[in-house]
Amino acid sequence: MRVTLFVEGLRPGGADRVISEMANFWGAQGRPVTLITLEPPARDFYPLHPNVRRIAWSPPGRLRSLAQNTLGFGFLRRAITASRPDVVVSFLDESNVRALACTLDLKIPIVISERSDPRQYRLRARWRLLRRAFYPLAGALVVQSRAVAGWAEKMVEPRKVRVIPNPVRLMTLDAAPCDPGEPVVMSMGRLIKTKGFDLLLDAFAEIAPRFPEWRLRIIGEGEERPALLAQAARLGLTDRFELPGLIADPAPLLRQAGVYALSSRYEGFPNALLEAMACARPVVAFDCPAGPREIIRDELDGLLVAPGRSDALAAALARLLASPSERAGLASRAPEVRERFSLPRVMAKWDRLFSELV
Questions:
Q1: Which of 138, 288, 301, 306 could potentially form a cystine with 312 if both were Cys, beta carbons 3.0 to 4.6 Å apart?
Q2: How confident is the model at residue 68, as a pLDDT?
């Protein structure tokens, strides 16, 4: 079966990583797979298997915004046609609309996928209208969690909705549940408001005097860096707060963490949380409207706390920091995500969907 994947680019981010891993999985199997992007390979953050055929938009710089801010109809239609797919998979709302719009008469099954929680943010008005018009034309709409499936069933026929979670990325280091790590509370993600790192800073500041040996480290890069540094200074945490930037392989730093915290205001299906648990880290997370609850088994392999409340996050962190035995207990079960969300298991769900459509 020939599969064509479409996403805007392979920038640092969860959707980009997952679609690259899907392409690499099929490429390693020798299956015909094509990846189409509206950004050139020079901008890629994630590598691709040599067997993955790449078709990328490469206009002069002054025209690039035209491709990114309009349907990019001609290029995408030609690229999809040239790949001769049995099925097309598109990630993210605007890309989904583009893929559906340019294949109206091609009689190819188009699988679209939402990669966050669409109930928690608003698209620009034009894209909301286009999404409402084009989504019902999809062969299937894939969401990452059961919580979002209800929203999806209002966008397309319920029979077209599928829940397929993200696969866990295999870490470069084996998990060692007995390793307590260092006195570091760690988090990871783009430095944007959605990730709630300001709430995490507030929570850590609340407990910092009780645990003077512990520090806070957040891996990632983004527009909120200056604001977070300024907040840390106001809270008197400058010497106990680290922003090491974007790191391609976070496993060594994750393995050093004593506790991992997810403070997002909302999520799709958080890859970083999966990776921390795969590294046998005790985790605490906001119980977002979607995502963490379908990964963490509360009190068994992690802790869930009331979403958006820094005081609840502070209390859970203090509980774990004060109890090495409880951290060890959670860490001993956390690596089970490696099996629960393994790449072969998740990819089998995609293959079953394709078999139904083709």
A1: 306
A2: 52
